[in-house]
Amino acid sequence: MTTTTTARAIVIDAPGEHRLVRGVRAEPGPGEARISVHAAGICASDREVYEGTREPEYVRYPVTPGHEWSGTVDAVGEGVDPGLVGRKTVAEGFRSCQSCERCREGLTMLCREGYDEIGFTRPGAFADSLLVPARLLHPLPDHADLRAAALLEPAAVVADAVLAAEPRPGERVAVLGAGTLGLLAVQLLAASSPAELLVVDPRLRRAERALTLGATRARAPEDGDSDHFDLVLETAGAPGTAQDACRMARRGGRVVLTGLSGPAARGIDPVRLVTARLTVRAVFGAPPAAWSHAVRALATGLLDPAPLITHELPLTRFDEAIALAASADPDVGKVLLTTGPDPGAV
């Protein structure tokens, strides 16, 4: 595959300070693959990196963000199958030691060596080109839509949550939050044939979008519901949503938490947990098995993230894209940064 020798990248030097840099396209080393990035999504954690609100142990400046992405392998290093060149792909973002207990269990996002992730502590995909260990690749079928595939990272997180939740046909299910995670969760949960699939979000227009993706009902939090849900999946990460999820679960019900609510979070009532015999699971990142599940769901048409995408802007308009992603406008969904010819290039 023919590629240009130069590449652009967004670099955040410090909170609120970014620049578009141009340099020589790096060559892959042993065990590496070079990706020609097609698109990269902007999520709340990218905004935290830009605004300086991400916890210091989860970011290393200067950094090129971008952990939600898709692209095509355009070169491989020594020891990597050359047949990968030209393949559409995504890849896991967590770097892990591969030898500690957690890694051997397949929980690479909990590696004992500490947190290390593309887009936060390693260069990410807000760039034309990206180097990743080839062992982290999840090649896609030739027919895959690379726009939709850019959302496979959050889809893998959701897949891990749904696998942990073990939904069963005929259950009453609720999803708290109608952002990217919540809407992807609706699609995967709908495949389990629930009797009821409710989506709750204060942005009612956002919640109602879930009705086109498999939800049976949408409402705002203040409209209330009794504690009758077999399964509640929390994706919002708002201060009170973990507490709300446990309140909405029936006695003996199951709750899965995916949102990071920060220091303002209201605690879960331990008496409620014990007397209702709730099962509570939490998800952080996604292990390889969840990535495989999400990729398979995309390939078979069970999952289609494309309807979540509302805006696509080039790298040169990063400041506009990050502002859009932070917007409270309910019509703004997933914002993608795309590569391609630079209008300012000479």
Assembly status:
single chain
Binned strand content: 25-35%
- In angstroms, what separates the terminal alpha carbons? 23 Å
Number of domains: 2
The second-level CATH architecture of the largest domain is Alpha-Beta Complex
Question: How is the biggest beta sheet arranged?
Answer: 7 strands, mixed
Under the CATH scheme, which class of the largest domain?
Alpha Beta
Task: Tell me the structural class.
Answer: alpha/beta
Number of E-state strands: 15
Give the overall shape, derived from the CA principal axes: globular
User: What's the helix-strand series?
Assistant: EEEHEEHEEHHEHEHEEHEHEHEHE
User: What is the helix content?
Assistant: 10-25%
Q: Give me the CATH fold name of the largest domain.
A: Quinone Oxidoreductase, Chain A, domain 1
Mean pLDDT over the full residue set:
93
The radius of gyration over CA amounts to 20 Å
* Alpha plus pi helix count: 10
CATH superfamily of the largest domain: Medium-chain alcohol dehydrogenases, catalytic domain
Low confidence ranges: none
